[in-house]
Amino acid sequence: MSLAEEVSIDLEVMFKALASERRLQILDWLKDPSENFPPQEHGDPDEHGACNQFIVEKLGVSQPAASRHLKVLTDAGLVIATSRKGWTYYRRNEEAIADLTRQIANHL
Description:
- It contains 7 helices and 3 strands, in the order H-H-H-H-E-H-H-E-E-H.
- It has 108 residues and is of the alpha+beta class.
- The protein has one domain (3-107): Arc Repressor Mutant, subunit A (Orthogonal Bundle), CATH 1.10.10.10.
- It has a 3-stranded antiparallel beta sheet.
- Helix 5 (52-59) crosses helix 6 (63-75).
- The two termini are 23 Å apart.
């Protein structure tokens, strides 16, 4: 597979991840987790992101639905999941988001 094909596949996966209003909302909330979510017992919002439980509650969807959205974002590399004391915390992958922005600019 050529580099151009790999970039196209990565862009396709990322665009599919961004093709949901709920996933875009999650990414927006994760820009400032301490502002958008309540205090967390086991993870620092700025270092670890937001607890899965708080994301589920704020989205107003079932646990499986929220988990699916988070998995799509994680699989695309736009979000990083970290396990802490039995909970999963999610934070934005700013490096991947910046890389996506550069790739889009290079293709337009």
